[in-house]
Amino acid sequence: MRILLTNDDGIEAEGLECLERIARTLSDDVWICAPQTEQSGKGRGITLTEPLRVNRIGAQRFAVTGTPTDCVVLAVNDLMPGRPDLVLSGVNRGHNVGEDCSYSGTVAGALQGMAFGIRSIALSQSLERFHDEVRAHWETAEVHAPPIISRLLAQKWQDGVVMNLNFPARPPEAVAEVEVTTQGFRAIGEMHAVRRTDLRGRDYYWMSFRGEKQSHAPGTDLRAMDDGKISVTPLHIDLTHRTSVNDLKRVLGGAVPKTVAVG
Fold first, then answer.
1. Residue 32 and residue 62 in contact, taking contact as beta carbons nearer than 8 Å
2. pLDDT category of residue 185 using cuts at 50, 70 and 90
3. In this structure, what DSSP letter does residue 229 have?
4. What was the pLDDT predicted at 225?
5. b/e string for 92-120 if b means 16 or more Cβ within 10 A?
6. CB atoms < 10 A from the CB of 256, how many?
7. Which of 55, 96, 163, 206 supports an S-S bond with 104, CB 3.0-4.6 Å?
8. What pLDDT score does 188 carry?
9. How many helices (H) and strands (E) does the chain have?
10. Which residues, in sequence order, are CB contacts of 142 under 8 Å at separation 6+?
């Protein structure tokens, strides 16, 4: 099995080292193509307005001046001798649950693998607190990911699906359960901008999260992190709201309307 690894924390990230150890329990044919610098929060962004540079730093290891999506596109189409059988993206420093999934570069790397028809998995390791001094329990992902991945690969997947794995902020021996979850959603307002002033008196902003304690619905990825469980969520990219389609068909469809609706 040929495995491609990518991430959004960058080529030198601890999580990528962890992911390589995970991948080598599954195969000896491991390729790495990751961003030269951190690309957190870039989602499915692709680089269109400037050239991409590739730095080969090992026999099967490349750093790219672009996003996780760029990395997967270049690896699959140009840098590897043949298509991978599996794309693993991560291990992200911090979980990717709830609405994180829509802007996560880690999830985006897996989504691009899926777009190429390759089975793809995103992996993230939750933190007790998102701060530089906090060390992630990488050993939790490293211990528990290989048997979970092997079981996922033994199953038939629906087309267009990626698997999103999140490991709780606990040591491996304190994690006893895996839960197949749905994507949860946080209360509105957790993300905000912090305004500061530079030395010339000009305002600038840092995007931030309030991180307030919330109660999350059972069965969601957010609740699984709260409960110290490993979360496995099958995701897909179809953003269509099916109920609204049916509702709208009652008022739109057929001939183009000629009058303005009032009321």
1. yes
2. confident
3. -
4. 96
5. bbbbbbbbbbebbbbbbbbbbbbbbebbb
6. 5
7. 96
8. 64
9. 7, 11
10. 18, 21, 22, 172
Question: What are the E-state strand segments in 50-170?
Answer: 54-58, 61-64, 86-93, 119-125, 161-167
User: What pLDDT, in 10s, does the model give residues 162-173?
Assistant: 999 999 999 999
Mean pLDDT of 30-44: 95
Check: CB of residue 221 under 8 Å from CB of residue 98. Answer: yes
Phi, psi of 143, rounded to the nearest 5 degrees: -75, -45
Rg from Cα positions in the chain: 20
Q: Which residue has the tokens 């990219």?
A: 237
On the 0-12 / 13-18 / 19+ scale of CB atoms within 10 A, 136 is: buried
- CA dist 204 → 38, 95, 196, 197, 207 (Å): 21, 27, 5, 6, 10
Percent of the chain at pLDDT exceeding 90: 83
- Taking a C-beta distance cutoff of 8 angstroms, is the pair 35, 108 a contact? no
User: Could you tell me the pLDDT band of residue 126, with boundaries at 50, 70 and 90?
Assistant: very high
Q: What is the pLDDT of residue 211?
A: 66
C-alpha angle 185-124-45 in degrees, rounded to nearest 5: 75
